[in-house]
Queue: 2 jobs
Job 1
Amino acid sequence: MTERIDHTLRGSWTAITGSLPPHALKWLHKRIGVDARTPARSPSVSPSGLGDEARAALAAVVGPGHVRVDRESRLGRAGGLSYLDLLRQRGTGELPAPDGVVLPGSPDEVVAVLRACVEHDVAVVPFGGGTSVVGGVAALRGDKAAVVALDLSRLNRLVEVDPVSRTVVLQAGVTAPRAERLLAPHGFTLGHVPQSYERATIGGFAATRSAGQASSGYGRFEDMVEGLRLATPVGEWRLGAAPASAAGPDLKQLVVGSEGVLGVITEVRLRVRRKPKVERYEGFVLDGWERGQRLVRELAQDRVLADVTRLSDVDETAVSLALSGGWKTAAMKGYLKARQVSEPCLLILGWHGASESEVSRRRADTLRGRRLLSLGRPLGEAWRHGRFNGPRQRDALMEIGVCVETLETAAHWSRISELRAAVRGALKDALGDCVVMCHISHAYETGASLYFTAIAARDVADPVGQWQVAKAAASEAIAGLGTITHHHAVGADHAPYLESEIGGLGVDVLTSVKRTLDPTGVLNPGKLLPGGLASLRDR
Amino acid sequence: MTERIDHTLRGSWTAITGSLPPHALKWLHKRIGVDARTPARSPSVSPSGLGDEARAALAAVVGPGHVRVDRESRLGRAGGLSYLDLLRQRGTGELPAPDGVVLPGSPDEVVAVLRACVEHDVAVVPFGGGTSVVGGVAALRGDKAAVVALDLSRLNRLVEVDPVSRTVVLQAGVTAPRAERLLAPHGFTLGHVPQSYERATIGGFAATRSAGQASSGYGRFEDMVEGLRLATPVGEWRLGAAPASAAGPDLKQLVVGSEGVLGVITEVRLRVRRKPKVERYEGFVLDGWERGQRLVRELAQDRVLADVTRLSDVDETAVSLALSGGWKTAAMKGYLKARQVSEPCLLILGWHGASESEVSRRRADTLRGRRLLSLGRPLGEAWRHGRFNGPRQRDALMEIGVCVETLETAAHWSRISELRAAVRGALKDALGDCVVMCHISHAYETGASLYFTAIAARDVADPVGQWQVAKAAASEAIAGLGTITHHHAVGADHAPYLESEIGGLGVDVLTSVKRTLDPTGVLNPGKLLPGGLASLRDR
């Protein structure tokens, strides 16, 4: 067995389990030829390089108990949850661990920590739930003498509730479930439910432009951000005077998505909504991807999307049916055949409301005049109950030697099908015998996201290289057709593709902002701006 | 009579008229004591300071016929349409005119013009419809040898239509009515109808974060922006890969609202909607401001706002009734008295849709369970037909010696009434015998805009100072409660208040971006960043 990483510090997931039902194992064997468990090794961690003076300076700010250099603490903040991260945590390849972990207790302490890090030449990786799948929390030190993880878990307060304006101020380290627990007594919800929900934090959502499964109804996280406190090496920056403004560029949108390279988000003022009293989830089926994506587009452009709107392609639908197994699946297949649905694409719709009648009305608005076949509420409820299982299933698949990873993009509607085909083709070419599944989970009037899952037998000789090649092929296929990331963010993994999306001038602009807020470049080296302060081009 | 400014180059307004109906004149005399026409003088314009070499360099880019230095062309781009601008155009105070007018014919020519301006030390004021009411197009030269207005009226094309994604690319100089004419054959509309509609341009909307009268339904202009081309002195910057992205900060939102100080917007990719087949406008009345603002808040928070949602306070409602006059007004007053409405606040709601049934359904959604008194469709239609008359009425009022100006802000709901009272109080203290009216025209889940109109007898001895004192008092009242501007932008007039809203670090960040894109500071001196490149603070 692999060594247990300190996951308790990251949230509330249950321990990793290696069990998959027999029919799923059989299916995997048949489809991608997996047949062996792969051995895991303990990851090696080099000794902490945090100097005594730096450690003392940090301890002077946060207290000695909140600067940790033990192996367990450092391993617990060594990278995120990408497939490559998980491989590294299982002893494959190099796992860069931070030299120490600093746990500040207030926004002011974060500013003081950053100043101490500047003084002692220590790089800082802001660390919330540690759920990045793009290397966003990799413990890279850049050109600094050492690197610490800035664990924000002590910034866990609900600071303010404004029930009239329906805004709240939450600290950056509050996890999504804790946010909901804190808001519930006030009758409010964020409605933000990404797959990382169980561990991810408010600060991380804001720093990465997170989108949740109900973003069609509640909006992307950046749509909820009314104000921010950002700690930087040159002081604190507060933004957010009003719900909307024409007072120059929207600088909140420069901080949202800054991924810890411009500062550390310590508090966020957020728009909240009344917690729904009724939620209704329902499964539908459409015949073929083209019909499915066209329907979702029409719902978006007619502005009658359900709060949750998620369309699986034929392959993802088939895998869902195969993996769930049992008599219900057989019955479903018979039903679809009888209805002459030859290429079933599953559509999950979910409506939230204050009452049954409101939800019924909204459902009627969505479905009015549409041609789609309802598969009933149990299928919708089944999706809802399993909605956070993806990471757990991945852990189980990893244990039996599967290469499994997801990636995502977004594009305008006129390019959606071309983009899907291009990414599928690139992944299949690179991985050979594999399964590639795709769904739309976020729809807009002008376009949508595409979310891919790839499954292949792990290349035991070069498991890291296997995925790196496939990921590069997919990223090249995306460039020019869509965005390199719809909601996973840039981190280290997408950084090489940023310039082709925002232009050389975009990189220059971000670098000049970084130079202003982080003049010595201590903040999150190697993320977003791959060259750090040196990214500014000579002209 | 005042000299006619070259308004034909600015759009399609009919000539300024000085006529007000007799009952309106009588009311004005009674309320604010206006009794005299004030004489207007021709504005004086100093000789053009554009050197021969600069002029030749600009002519080499755009052609000799598109570089103008005649008095008429220069006066036609001398400032915008604020009350102080209009006073200056009538010969009161200094009217800074550009040294020349340059009319580029393509986005590439704009880049080349900027390079020529850098080489010849010429400041550039991007000029669209010239409708700024905050000094955004004042011909200020900063520390440059000369200043030209960069008139974008030749960038007047619809470049691309993507009917599937429902996006279009429009050039910056396209006026709002022309945009609608270009989109109509495709069945689309922007739905963007600010009061400046008849003259204002796509580039101006984007550069100033414009909001239209139907922004509750169609969104603010920045919500429609899917992509941008920005000409800068260091080259062209293109943005906008997808409808949504997590690829770092949203740099589009740094360009939107940049007011010509970071670059010149030359093309904008915009989300469009199906042109509505049915529009229904209706007047309602609520008793008292508090009830009215609470209702609008509930509509916003329940997400059932009409596309147009506009609540007038008691004073604005009374003035509307007084100025419209006639038997209908008398009948209305009788009706309201009979219904025991003691403090009538007019609410205009307007719904757009593809069919009568859709509009009826949306109206039902808005009104379900609400207590408000309908005054019928004629009142709604009357508002709709007069919706662009504000500027014309102001011109008429100016002719008879009235000091008349508007200002606006936005705040979270919990501060709305306090903010309204504070601004009213400040204006009344400063102006003495005056009328101050207010309405909410843009509502959000977390707050709303407040739009004020002040009318007083002009101080003949110091007309400019009279308004400057009042405006400063209102701006001081706003600071700390709301934003200095909800949709009028910053320009020169609000620039002194920007730092208190975005912080010293915000000014530093914007300045560092300007330094990257406009290293010699030729772009729109004196706007947004009052200190230009020197705004970056020493620390």
Job 2
Amino acid sequence: MNKESSGVMWRQQFLRHANLGLSLQAQVRQMVVGVVLEGQWPTSLAIPSSRELAEMLGLARNTVVIAYQHLVDEGYLIAYERRGYFSNPALMQQIKHPPRQAQDVDPSQRPDWAQRFRFDPAAQLNITKKANWRQYSYPFIYGQFDQESFPSAAWRACCMATLSTLEVSEWAQDMFLRDDEGLIKQLRLRVLPRRGVWVNDNELVITVGAQHALYLLADLLVSPNCVVGLEDPGYPDARNIFLSRTEQVQPLAIDDEGLILNEALLAQCDYVYVTPSHQSPTTVRMSLERKKELLVLAQKHDFIVIEDDYESENCLTNEASPSLKSLDHAGRVIYISSVSKVLAPGIRMGYVAADPILVQRLRAIRRLNIRHPTAYMQRVFAQFLSLGHYDVVLRKRAALLSEKATTLMQALDQYLPILKYQYISGGAACWVECPPQMKAHELAAAAEQRGVLIEVGDVFFVKNTENQHFFRLGFASIPNHKIEAGIRELSAVVRSLYGVEQEPSLQAV
Amino acid sequence: MNKESSGVMWRQQFLRHANLGLSLQAQVRQMVVGVVLEGQWPTSLAIPSSRELAEMLGLARNTVVIAYQHLVDEGYLIAYERRGYFSNPALMQQIKHPPRQAQDVDPSQRPDWAQRFRFDPAAQLNITKKANWRQYSYPFIYGQFDQESFPSAAWRACCMATLSTLEVSEWAQDMFLRDDEGLIKQLRLRVLPRRGVWVNDNELVITVGAQHALYLLADLLVSPNCVVGLEDPGYPDARNIFLSRTEQVQPLAIDDEGLILNEALLAQCDYVYVTPSHQSPTTVRMSLERKKELLVLAQKHDFIVIEDDYESENCLTNEASPSLKSLDHAGRVIYISSVSKVLAPGIRMGYVAADPILVQRLRAIRRLNIRHPTAYMQRVFAQFLSLGHYDVVLRKRAALLSEKATTLMQALDQYLPILKYQYISGGAACWVECPPQMKAHELAAAAEQRGVLIEVGDVFFVKNTENQHFFRLGFASIPNHKIEAGIRELSAVVRSLYGVEQEPSLQAV
């Protein structure tokens, strides 16, 4: 290969491996490893000298020298006096690929997978989110990452501290029987008490997010003959999880005080799943009276209450109302929550507080399922909590969200008075009901054309086809300054679709 | 509180929060946050000045000054001219705990949990490991962390790069529908080809370790009327996972060529779970002939083969034999493996390569289960692979393990010739059979008294009570220089228990 074509090849490779997250030295390493491993450079030929490569790529020579040196130390390259750097044949031997085989499958032999599925999870109705939501001007979506309130520096520091050799030897182990003591302590002493919940170590188990807790509970407790009561409208993934274990789900209606306590219906249930702190999706908070009454009924009719406190911390008024668990003296409430939701959904960290007998079984089935949640993340979180960063995030986020909630409600009053919405007392979304003539799907599709993303509400209902005029406006991910313009845009969409005439300035609010 | 008692209190608190993983400044922060949050300091009283605290704790004043400044910036503390630092009442308001409630449960009201469990995962037979195994001189245990071969620096660097703001905004999202493209690419181009497996993006799904893959497969595919064929002896967690879905598990015997292909038994199976690269626990490698024949039978009798390649990379001879998946042209093999096992079990990262139809359903049931594996870890791994660190670890570890394997087999030949062991061709454990008069439980208990940990083998058998004279010697976690002494110690235990007379020096090997 002549010098010119070689130069072109290396430059192309370098561009291919360009990665802003990495140092130039690391990028050089990544490129050389790639070229060598993928056999794009003859093993018989010396790779360019550090001087040559530095020139080709316009880098400081030292950058290349150090990258090469590491690769020599680790056996990728061998340096020969006056002959230069070569890929190490021993390594090539070890990593050489068997000849590529055609993996084409003979269709006639292909198994009939469809008839093998116990149930079809892909067919379940669910919330869909655009992966490219960031490219829309007004993403009123729920539960996505809110960069504004993420404490990057603090989080990074905790990750760093958790990467010390001492720490690594702790979390690198197979910890299938226990959770990180530090995290358990923080949850017991700092997090749960705010919800009025005081538990012992043997009453807590860590999960990969609140939803994971729900899945393990369903797998452990719900057999096909069980009846599970669910809020309607309610959290679709919860409904799907229970439907994967039993066909007998009992929809339970909601009003402004939360779950309506229909004793006849509740009496049939073995389990009742509720989101009392702010109901999903309406964000309605269950009244204290209802909470107490629900526990009485649970006792009377021997059902178990699963309390999903997924957004407890994210409360816009000053006093959070007590959790069901804090009122439970019969051990009938299984409390599940998430610590990562307020921080970043991608982190996935939740927990269950419940009867020790149940917690022991949950840990055992968790072992079957995933052995244990990555211990590294558990320790990072323990640290993050112990340094008080969590409290700072909560405060910052609560302030940010209540500001946004106010902006949103004002904008709705001003530009879309024809819509009914649930007053936002907490959470990060607004539940909206359109007049019967409007179809949320229609509206969402038209709005998307104008850069406004809203979440259609039918998926939250058991009878989704009969509930076509609801939608949800999430406001965690959209910046405050864009909310009003977004709602104005949405009102334009409404006018163009339904010709609802309204002069914003003349609107009585 | 007078200065002296206050000094004592702060010193005690500082000791309580001592943490080698943290900088002194962070430790001061942790202490102050703790004291303030847990209300151990009157809010009306100024906390010690930076000078006072520095003196009390014998720290550089600047350490305390900076810690205080951060806490002021974040609203924990308020600094008043000439009056000093006070805890911020607003924050205290936000985080104040409801009065501690007696969570005592009235036993008479406590639900009868036992009758609610669909099955009892805690009652399943399983491998047990001492959490304090490090405190034993000779821990011959399997699958624990091997500090020697863990590339701390490289791993830390990858974690760091993945914590850049740019990266964070990528992985912090709720990624329930997709996996990290970088990791998928690395697995497709760098990892799977070594096993002769070439797949497309839609044929791969990431899991929280190989076991997680197995659990999802069982939940998706195995109903109570399914028959699942399992190696016997075999991996207990796999057996437990399938037993949680069906009672019909079919034990399949093993010999020196791996799974014995009993067509009559295999014909009854809907699924056959195998560990061909080195069988768990015997480490026997399935012969190429048997692999091919198994696939023919799968086709003939319409069963699916689940290939657990959990330790494929960890092979002590030079040529790894091809995976079943690489020989499969009927799309009947579901390939599962782990990338984290060779690195650190605590990291938990695995994947499934299979038919796109199945992979789509696996991603959907994974969404129900945990939504998705922490995206942060996926990206760290993608980086770790792309920089070639993974290859370095594999080489280093393979060298280390084959060295240990040789030492172990020599020691067994010399000191315990009365034991039969399976020649170690790969993996990180040696499967040992005692003469009938020996009981592995007895031996393990006595050995533990002398600081030698061995793993009793009965748990690997379906009929565990009838297989009391097997045990396993793991050698990943014990350093090479301790192996011989450990085996000598074990032989002493054997002599003392069974009076087997043997002069090591006179032993013919």
